[in-house]
Amino acid sequence: MNSIFFDLSFVDQINSAVIRLVAQHGDFFHDITRILLIHFLVPLEKFLIGLSPVVVLLGIGVLAWHALRRWTTVVALVAGLYLIGCFGLWDKLMQTLALMLVSTTLTIAIGLPMGIWMSASPRLRKVLEPVLDVMQTLPTFVYLVPVLMLFGLGKVPAVLATVIYALPPLVRLTDLGIRQVDKEVVEASRSFGSTPWQLLINVNLPLARPSIMAGLNQAVMMALAMVVIASMIGSRGLGEDVLSGINNMDMGRGLQGGFSIVILAVVIDRITQAYGKGRRERQALRQKRKGGQA
């Protein structure tokens, strides 16, 4: 009955290619792991855990106030983080935050230039769009396979898998934001003698900022969605409690860890969304609130 199918499989070919890649460039992958761990992840994690929780909560409160300018929202966000500490998960929150900061930094370092390049090159856009489509439609567990094969277990493969998963929205929205900049403004800037670099820095990026910040917001949310999955390969943090709750049928621990991730997601979402709005838009919202209170 199955004789109508050809015998077609690429499993052996891919496995052989990965084995050759690891054999030839294993030292390179080891160096990447060592650099990310020694110079970024471990120092940042130790620094955050070493800080007094009061300092962290005050710092996030000041950042939230600068972005939102609403005391009720700021107090609610800080209270949510304080609640995570009350759960006994403060150190794991700092581990997750360190992972998020490193992953987000790498995502910006790769995604922002790629989006800018795409906006300037229609040919590159045609090549990258199907790649980004595949990256966004692949199941999240699939991202773990190549990084595990190349980097093994630990925090570094978790960071790299998170970066790959979170990259597409930032690239797409950066490209879209720059292409939607008013052509008349661009032409006026060129007529005044702006170089391509000046045009990018002084015109395109500032006007595309809301779209870029929306892409960053989506990238951060997708990175948080990888926290639980990344804990399966040794990233630790808040996702570890969710995974432990699933493995041990401990519903309370799993829900508590999941609720903590939701709180962190809400805090980051509210702050990044506020910074995504232009200064004038934020000032208009403040004036509107003052008028409503009056």
UniProtKB/TrEMBL annotation:
Q: Name one GO biological process term.
A: choline transport
Entry annotated with the keyword Transport: yes
Cite the ABC transmembrane type-1 domain residue spans from the record.
93-272
- Transmembrane annotation, as ranges: 47-65, 71-90, 97-120, 140-167, 214-234, 254-272
Q: Where in the cell is it found?
A: Cell membrane
The record describes its membrane topology as: Multi-pass membrane protein
User: Which GO cellular component term is one of those annotated?
Assistant: ATP-binding cassette (ABC) transporter complex
PROSITE patterns of this UniProt entry? Answer: ABC_TM1
Keyword entries, A-Z: Cell membrane, Membrane, Transmembrane, Transmembrane helix, Transport
- InterPro entries the UniProt entry points to: MetI-like, MetI-like_sf
Task: Tell me one Pfam family matched here.
Answer: BPD_transp_1
Query: Its Gene Ontology molecular function terms?
Result: amine transmembrane transporter activity; carnitine transmembrane transporter activity
| Family assignment from sequence similarity | Belongs to the binding-protein-dependent transport system permease family.
The protein's name is ABC transporter permease
